[in-house]
Amino acid sequence: MLELRPILSALWRHKISALLIAVQLGLTLAIVGNATVVIQERIERIARPTGVAVTDIVTAQFMPIAKNYDRLEAFRLDLDMIRQLPGVAAATVSRAPLTGGGSGTGLYTAPNQEIGATGGAQFWGTNTLSMLWA
Q1: Are strands 128-133 and 103-107 parallel, antiparallel or unpaired?
Q2: How many CB atoms are located within 10 Å of the residue 21 CB?
Q3: pLDDT tens, 24-56?
Q4: Half-sphere exposure of 112 (CA within 13 A, CB side)
Q5: Which of 4, 34, 57, 121 is deepest in the core (most CB within 10 A)?
Q6: How far apart are CA 31 and CA 28, in angstroms?
Q7: Cα–Cα dist 127/21, whole Å
């Protein structure tokens, strides 16, 4: 069994060592406590509602093989076919929401401006380009 008396006796004789151990223990507890709070906040953020009908989203990816492949025509034909399926509310060529992908850019209010950009996210749809300002 662990004998505490020799440990406490040694710590009592070496006060600086005892102080360093106490500081290390306090720092470790502070880091672990902070990490726990950060993880808990992330879990709460992940659990909140997205505002998107997640169960109604379907994504697909394709990879053309032919070198002379007409991508725009293929998109048009595929979207027309998907839109005709029963139960399909909308179909578009875009980044799927909630995938962590997308495209962003810095937007400036003056020509040749190099600092002070406003962030913007780009979303492409059928014949549209809409910008949502961050």
Answers
A1: unpaired
A2: 12
A3: 999 999 999 999 999 999 999 888 887 777 777
A4: 0
A5: 121
A6: 5
A7: 66
Token pair for 97: 């929401």
| Phi, psi (degrees; rounded to nearest 5) at 50 | -85, -25
Sheet containing 103-107: which strands, arranged edge to edge?
103-107, 118-125, 128-133
For residue 52, which of 128, 103, 123 has the smallest C-alpha distance?
123
Helix (H) or strand (E) holding 129: strand 128-133
Which pLDDT score, from 0 to 100, does residue 121 have? Answer: 64
Alpha helices in 1-134 (DSSP H): 4-13, 15-47, 71-83
pTM, full prediction: 0.43
Residue 2: pLDDT band by 50, 70, 90 thresholds?
A: confident
Tokens 């290390």 found at: 24
Tokens of 77: 């034909």
Q: Distance from first CA to last CA of the chain, Å, rounded?
A: 62
Residue 118: strand pairing partners: 107
Check the CA dihedral 111-115-118-119 and report its sign.
positive
Q: What are phi and psi of 121, to 5 degrees?
A: -105, 140
